[in-house]
Specification:
Layout lengths: L1 H10 L6 H5 L6 E5 L6 H17 L3 E5 L6 H8 L7 E6 L1 H8 L12 E15 L8 H10 L4 E5 L5 H13 L3 E5 L3 H9 L5 E5 H10 L3 E5 L24 E8 L5 H15 L2 H9 L3 E2 L4 H22 L5
Helix pairs in contact: 3-10, 5-12, 7-12
Length: about 325
């Protein structure tokens, strides 16, 4: 049934008249997001919805579909008519779902039209300050020599922190047990209370506690050091191949006409380059991207392949 719906969505491209593309948009656009109101995805969706409303001269509304780790919003988008009036603000969970869920009703890349990657954000490796390591080199040596399994916390199974921990275990050759929490806030609070050893946390949430000395920062998960944290090494400097980047982007249904894709990409990149949006993204600990549709497609394909491999080796499964 779901396969048939995806096929019909692809075939619907043939029914999209050329004049409908020429005067696009001429009515309200729906921007889906797999998040409840007030979350990071919701806030980002509303920022770009406002910018698109202004530049396209048509209302862009945000439709929150916070359930099933984004699968509900993904399926709505994958089966929507490819006319540019249903879009999805997706994030890294979109590709991770393909690794965790063998029964996903769509392929995270092939059953969509990538439009633009908006942001990328590294995470930060942090430990409780009561433990001996003062830097990344010491931490890896300490983790390898630890007499029993270490524990690492995360926002839940399949979260960025969970996958970063699994990748670290595989590349460093250490043993560590995963402790999933119900969100990044509870996971960070548990680290502050010294309930486990280490965490790959979000930059924005972790930095106040790093500055206060309540947790110790050791490394970041991007392949290169961040300009804002030049003294903090990348994990990849010690473990080549290590990278975890949280990201956000806009995708549409499969078969979205090229003129519509090009127009949306141009407007999104323009919005991304506006000083108020850039400043907000940088303040959140993220980096603006603004990729082309093809660059975004290749990025998502590579991201999917990487996490399929990591999840398979770790044995992680969706809740």
């Amino acid at each position: 049934m779901k396969t048939a719906a995806l096929l019909l969505a692809a075939l619907a491209t043939l029914a999209t008249p050329a004049h409908a593309q020429d005067d696009y948009p001429n009515r309200t656009i729906r921007l889906l997001t797999a998040a409840a109101q007030g979350g990071t995805s919701d806030i980002l969706a509303r920022v770009f919805a406002a910018k698109l409303t202004e530049s396209l001269k048509q209302t862009v509304i945000v439709d929150n579909r916070a359930s099933a780790s984004g699968v509900v919003a993904g399926e709505i988008t994958a089966t929507a008519k490819p006319d540019g009036y249903t879009l999805l603000l997706c994030y890294h969970q979109h590709t991770v779902n393909a690794a965790l869920n063998s029964k996903l009703p769509y392929h995270p890349v092939n059953n969509f039209t990538p439009i633009a990657q908006l942001t990328a954000a590294a995470q930060i490796l942090v430990i409780h300050p009561s433990y001996p390591p003062k830097n990344l080199t010491e931490f890896i040596a300490w983790a390898k020599a630890h007499p029993g399994p270490l524990n690492f916390g995360s926002a839940g199974i399949g979260s960025g922190g969970h996958l970063a921990g699994e990748l670290f275990k595989q590349l460093a050759g250490v043993k560590a047990e995963h402790i999933p929490y119900k969100g990044s806030g509870p996971a960070l609070a548990a680290l502050l209370a010294n309930e486990y050893h280490f965490n790959f946390a979000g930059l924005q949430a972790a930095q106040p506690h790093i500055r206060s000395g309540r947790i110790r920062a050791l490394a970041i998960t991007s392949t290169k050091r961040l300009p804002t944290l030049p003294d903090l090494p990348a994990v990849a400097e010690q473990l080549p191949g290590f990278e975890l980047v949280g990201w956000y982007g806009i995708i549409g249904p499969p078969g979205l006409p090229a003129p519509i894709v090009a127009k949306l990409n141009a407007e999104l990149v323009k919005a991304l380059n506006s000083p108020d949006v850039r400043d907000r993204i940088l303040a959140d600990g993220s980096e603006p991207v603004g990729s082309s549709p093809e660059q975004f497609r290749q990025f998502m394909l590579a991201d999917t392949a990487k996490w399929v491999k990591v999840v398979k080796e770790s044995g992680a499964k969706a809740d």
